[in-house]
């Protein structure tokens, strides 16, 4: 819970395991989900949530789940990066098993908010060189979790909500045609 994750995505824990290599794809995406485990193909990871396959079959990206899994909803994160057993099987890459929290006989809860602000961000080299201010980036991730008994020693509940609000600016360079070019004349 104390590790810094982009957007607090728990599947990102795989990116810090031994044998995992990051190799960003500059053409499409350049994030922690773009990698391989022990030399395997990037789409050969297997993600299970409470024993159910939640792999992202559409984009075939590494280390992803089709369900947004929050840190506060996970009780256990297990990963096998090599020599998976028959119970894990299915792929040659990493096996990630997530187990969600359940309630208990006692009432437990949490409220949280994580803020990333422009004031704590560094400016890029090229913006500094051109005298351009930092781009605005404000990210708020907030939520609540509560769990407890419905019937003592028999039936429990656990609820988790997480929201995210982003506000950001981006630098953009565009080439604008000259007046002569717009009239069809050679420049």
Q: How would you portray this structure in words?
A:
This protein is mainly β and 187 residues long. It contains two helices and nine strands. A four-stranded mixed β-sheet has the order 4-3-6-5, with no helix packed on it. Strand 3 and strand 4 form a beta hairpin. The radius of gyration is 22 Å and the shape is extended. The N and C termini lie far apart (59 Å). Residues 25-32 have low confidence and may be disordered.
Q: Which series of helices and strands comes N to C?
A: EEEEEEEHEEH
Range of strand content? 25-35%
Count of helix runs: 2
Structural class of the secondary elements?
mainly beta
What is the overall pLDDT average?
79
**Shape, principal axes of CA atoms:** extended
Topology:
Elements lengths: L19 E3 L12 E3 L8 E4 L2 E2 L20 E7 L14 E6 L7 E9 L8 H6 L6 E15 L3 E14 L10 H4 L5
Parallel strand pairs: 3-6
Antiparallel strand pairs: 1-2, 3-4, 5-6, 7-8, 8-9
Quick summary:
The chain is mainly beta and 187 residues long. The chain has helices at residues 125-130, 179-182, and strands at 20-22, 35-37, 46-49, 52-53, 74-80, 95-100, 108-116, 137-151, 155-168.
Descriptive terms for the model:
single chain; 187 residues; mainly beta; four-stranded mixed sheet; three-stranded antiparallel sheet; 2 helices; 34% strand
